[in-house]
Amino acid sequence: MWHYYSVQVPPGEHKLRWTVTQTNSTDDCDLYIKKGSFPDRNNYDYRDFTRNSVVTMEFDAEPSSTYYAGIFGFTSCSYNILVLVGSGCPNGCSGHGDCNIDTCQCYSGWSGVDCSLADSELTFGVSHVDQVQRGQWKYYHIRLTSNVNVLTVTLEQSSGLPSDCDLYVKRENNPTQRDYDYVDAGTNLISTINVNGASAGVWYFGVYGYSGNLLNYSITVTESNSGCDNQCSNHGTCSGNACSCNPDYSGLYCETKLSPLTNTDEVQGYVEQNTWNYYSYNVGTANNWVVLVQQTTSTADCDLFLKPGAKPSRFDFIVKEDSLKQNFNVTVEHPTIGLWWIGITAFGSNPCHYSLRAYETSRCAAGCVNGFCNAEGFCVCNNGWIGEACDVQPNSLARGNVVSGQVNVNEWKFYDYSLNSASSVFIQLLETNSAGSIWLYVSLHDTPSIMSHDYAATELNRKHHRVRIDFDAPTSTSISIGVYGSPYLEHGPLGFSLVAWSPDF
Length: 505
Description:
Blueprint: E1 2-8, E2 15-22, E3 29-35, E4 46-48, E5 54-60, E6 66-73, E7 79-85, E8 97-100, E9 103-106, E10 110-111, E11 117-121, E12 128-133, E13 137-144, E14 148-157, E15 164-171, E16 182-184, E17 190-198, E18 201-211, E19 214-224, E20 236-239, E21 242-245, E22 249-250, E23 256-257, E24 266-271, E25 276-283, E26 288-295, E27 302-308, E28 319-321, E29 327-332, E30 338-346, E31 352-361, E32 371-373, E33 379-381, E34 395-397, E35 403-407, E36 412-431, E37 438-443, E38 455-457, E39 464-485, E40 494-501
Parallel strand pairs: 11-13, 34-36
Antiparallel strand pairs: 1-6, 2-5, 2-7, 3-4, 3-6, 8-9, 10-11, 12-19, 13-18, 14-17, 14-19, 15-16, 15-18, 20-21, 22-23, 24-31, 25-30, 26-29, 26-31, 27-28, 27-30, 32-33, 35-40, 36-39, 36-40, 37-38, 37-39
């Protein structure tokens, strides 16, 4: 669905700046700009189709020309749109700030690009009582004149569900549902966020009314320079206000193990909310590898994230396990050769004590149920069977027949498709109630996986995923198709439709 807007550039002016602010974290609005006519997804001068909650597009404009902006709802979305013509500040800084060339310098108590957001300054140790409507933000800030060991913000609600406020924290700018440093979006009456090793500067706090009507709450910020951050992760000792790390550990609170784990290592650690422990593991073969986590406290919730080549985060990972299981393991199939990073963090206000192991396992370790294990440690499956242990019977696709299915996060559905003297094949997947949460993989000779496949369509912002394969000569063979619920899928199951077609030549 499209919404269109236009603006006439006055004579002598040469600048346009459009700003689109999305109001909900699950929305996805795309911005397209074109001079002289309405833009569409294939015909535009400028565009931004990221998932950023605030999009600003500034460019040199032609005087006395009309520019058209199109907002395309990639998903349903609510937004505010603002355009600034020529030099100057948006909305004249709303009467709450001074304009410095084209940037607002907001007065005390106001923030935002146009100084339209009320922003109260807090005092350490003094509770501020306020209220917020559902779908509304209230912002606060506090100034740190020097670094502190722990900056603590506590939000206490006056009533529980169905009323619920969420607490967001960000340094040097107002947080949003998509742009923040720390968040507590749970349903507890009291939400507490501890910022370990908080740097000097201005810290901003956002309270968002998630559900209910008028929500009453108090917010309190305290600072502490006593003790050590995150109990030194149980990887060191606290000396005064600083951690003295055990050998092979480093970081502000001894959070990073310097040498990679081996198959026989078992490590213990400790993480509080918004803190991390990091380990690495050297993957030297294509064998699967496993990370095993056991939590020693039943009230805690450890979350695990994996990524090759760099430390993961909650938003940047390849594999994750963020369920409420106390003990769990994650298997990485067909891994990329090289150094993988393991990140573990606590969800919620309860700290997590844990033990962790990482080890490699042979592909034939589970046995080849319907096949045999070759000398290289691979299962060779009998006809009609696929999978690491030859224990998966794929569904067959008939040419041109549309099949429907569902997948959950990290779940696979497999299909096979037979070619008969075909020079090409077309495979198309349609997500029925999502966009970019289901991925399509194709292999010509083996079962596809994230790490091992011949073709893939994994676009993050598209409902349609297509693979076309062209052969040098007419080919008769069977190809394997994998449909995968991506690790970025936040809920499930999600539905899809799948079809394959090949010409008879």
